Amino acid sequence: MKHPTWHKIHSAFRLNDIPYSFESLSEICYHLKQEGKPFEKPIGDFLLDWISDRPVVEVTTSGSTGKPKTIVLKKEHMVNSALATGEYFQLQPKQKALLCLPCTGIAGKMMLVRAMVLGLHLDYVEPSSSPLPENSKIYDFAAMVPLQVQNSLNQLSRIQTLIIGGAPVDSSLRSQLVKLSVRAFETYGMTETITHIAVKRIAGDSTNYFETLPNVFVAQDNRECLVIEAPKISAGKVVTNDLVELIDKTQFKWLGRYDSIINSGGIKLVPEKIEEKLSTLIKPRFFVAGIPHETLGQQLVLVVEGNPIKEHELLQDIRDLKEVSRYEVPKNVFFVKTFTETSTQKVDRKKTLQQVI
User: Fold this and answer.
1) From CA 343, how far away is CA 39, in angstroms rounded?
2) CA–CA dist 341, 146 (Å, integer)
3) Which one-letter DSSP state was computed for residue 250?
4) pLDDT, averaged across the chain
5) Smallest Cα–Cα separation from 159: which of 139, 136, 129?
6) Least packed by Cβ within 10 Å: which of 9, 24, 86, 276?
7) Do 129 and 148 contact (CB within 8 A), yes or no?
8) What pTM was estimated for this model as a whole?
9) DSSP 109-133
10) Which band of pLDDT confidence, cut at 50, 70 and 90, is reported for residue 180?
């Protein structure tokens, strides 16, 4: 009887320096579930689900762009996604990888799948905003969210290739990464596409366009939103709410979310484009949003994490930015001590905004 593709664990696979075969994985699964630390239990849950005979995995979306929902993914598609990542980044068996993302979401789960499929030596650590462990290990491959990258800048020389997802990489962080030796890539993807389907190199001479992974093709719908065709990781086309500028069937520029457009007095504002411009000025985490307004319909506001500073001075500095139009200047600034986050450490804009309205 032919075994399913997900039953084939690469002989080089190691988890925290311990080798595991498909047959022996159940041992670590039960150990993590019953005796592991809170962050280890989801690792045990996922591995136990992976070695079961069920051909699918249920994954909950982060909820950063809407209400969290459960999505069913085929394990075969997850294997294909891991192979595509391995091909694009030329990952080799026995290379060292770091898992520092929660295994409650697809990003953490896929680091485990890549390690099992490609034969990586994977270390896992407790997810935190400063995830690099206090040792001198060099890692060939790791995945982080922007906040983790920002807090690890002085340690990133220990990572050869770093993929960054969960939120856009702002211009300030990008300029800092360009100066480092790490090969950093911004990623585009979602739970429905089994993490990233396209990447963008962060380098001094890098392009502003995302390039798709092998066997992934893109188009636009009549809203100018991205449509993804990836038969090896999805049964049908994935229609997104992401506004893009299409270059060709394998390259695109991400502009922002169709469902986050702010209509202020008939002027359509894309928050992500404004945030990119403001990131050169504002160092703490922040975002812009639209709140109800009697005459404008929506009013543009700025929400900043941390202690309050002089609002009028900040707004004047924003007005002085040459690339910011008068429509893109926020009408008010709100300060929030700590942003609300999703379970996968993304900023929950809706809940954070509710704190100030």
Assistant:
1) 12
2) 13
3) T
4) 91
5) 139
6) 24
7) yes
8) 0.83
9) HHHHHHHHHHT-EEEE----SS-S-
10) very high
**Strands, E assignment, 258-331:** 262-264, 267-269, 286-293, 297-305
Residues 6+ apart with CB under 8 A from 346: 62, 64, 145, 166, 167
- 3-class DSSP assignment, residue 326: helix
| pLDDT for residue 190 is more than 60 | yes
**Closest by CA position to 230, among listed 248, 218, 221:** 218
Reported as half-sphere exposure (CB side, CA atoms, 13 A), residue 64 has a value of 18
Residue 22 is which amino acid? F
Tokens of 228: 């993804």
Q: Which range is least confidently modeled, 108-117, 122-131, 275-284, 339-348?
A: 339-348
Fill in the amino acid letter for 336: V
Residue-level pLDDT at 347: 85
In the numeric block, the tokens 């188009």 are attached to 219
Task: Please tell me the distance from the alpha carbon of residue 349 to that of residue 3, in angstroms, as a whole number.
Answer: 44
Helix/strand number for the chain, H first, E second? 9, 20
* Contact call for residues 346 and 64 (beta carbons, < 8 A): yes
Percent of the chain residues past pLDDT 70, beyond the cut: 96
